[in-house]
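help with these tokens:
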Amino acid sequence: MSNATEYLLRCIIVTPQRPVAEQMADFVVFTAHDGQFGILPGRAPLICQLGCGLLRVDRGQDSLWYYVSGGFAQVSDNQVVVAANQAVGAGEIDVQQVGRELAELHLKKLDPQVRQRSTEQLKVKLMVAQQVKSNGEK
């Protein structure tokens, strides 16, 4: 008889500052530097550079959403390890604060490339938070 955990993924999310989450999942979606990956149990090993965007962890009918930026993801033996520069639960994102940060960014004297990259990251963070709130997810 097979073990039920053979059909689940163990998902671990960490940042340099702290462990963010560890949970079992049926399906994990994350944003890599070159697009999104959807991971199911039994996936071949993979390591990739993370981009800036959504990380979703599904278990049954429930989904947990996170904003991640930078770092790496490793998939091996039904385990997904996301080691991100930034990772925060989408429900923890203060939409008004992100809006203020966007406004303040345009007032700062920054290299145009730095300003563009920072603006894009904040817009993605805002999009993840708004998407989750509109779907009533966690």
Summary: Helices lie at 95-105, 112-135.
